[in-house]
Design brief:
- By secondary structure, the chain is an alpha+beta fold.
- The protein has a single domain, classed as 2-Layer Sandwich (Alpha-Beta Plaits), CATH 3.30.70.1700.
- It is about 20% helix and about 40% strand.
- The protein has 2 helices and 7 strands.
- The strands form 2 sheets. A 5-stranded mixed beta sheet has the order 1-2-3-5-4, with helices on one face. It has a two-stranded antiparallel sheet with strand order 6-7.
- The relative contact order is 0.18.
């Protein structure tokens, strides 16, 4: 969905401006597996669940979405306490940057369908002291938005047909005539 690209690009630009990961912030790609590529931050939409806004058997299709947007920051340090401190600072920077100014979503000028943030999860993955000193903080935003899908008219409505089904073997009665353009 195009809205996902707008959100991830907006968040990426703000995190780079805030100095997260030394500007090494990417969208929609895999995380590095080597320590020398760290620090690194990845932003991606991992799920978008849509539920019918009203009776799904009537009217145009309308949905309320919960979009799961994940911001994962990986870093390394020489000691466990130093790693914990770096990851906590990165998590706070992400939250402060993303939640304090929602202009990344287009809400300010009203052009984006973002209706709100339903939930925020923050998880830290830090190895026990003495093991490889590489860890991550994962911030997950549950974004609410709505979509509707208007029907596509495949007829130009230039002709109208009216008919009566007489039933049985009798011929049908009907007429076709042009519709005036107004």
């Amino acid at each position: 969905m195009q809205v996902h690209s707008v959100w991830t690009a907006g968040i990426r630009d703000r995190l780079i401006a805030a100095g997260l990961a030394g500007g090494n912030v990417e969208r929609d790609r895999s995380m590095p597996t080597m320590n020398d590529a760290l620090p690194m931050c990845l932003i991606a939409v991992v799920d978008d669940k849509a539920v019918a806004d009203r009776d799904p058997r009537a009217g145009i299709p309308r949905f309320n979405h919960t979009c799961e947007l994940v911001i994962e920051h990986r870093d390394k340090a020489d000691t466990g306490p130093a790693l914990r401190q770096k990851l906590y600072a990165a998590g706070q920077l992400i939250l402060g940057t993303v939640l304090a100014d929602l202009s990344w979503s287009g809400i300010v000028d009203g052009n984006d369908p973002l209706e709100g943030i339903a939930r925020v999860d923050v998880a830290y993955d830090i190895p026990p002291d003495g093991e490889a000193e590489m860890g991550r903080v994962v911030v997950t935003l549950y974004l609410l938005h709505a979509t509707s899908w208007s029907p596509v008219a495949t007829d130009d409505f230039a002709l109208a047909s009216i008919g009566v089904d007489t039933g049985g073997d009798a011929p049908e009665i009907g007429a076709t005539f042009p519709v005036p353009v107004v």
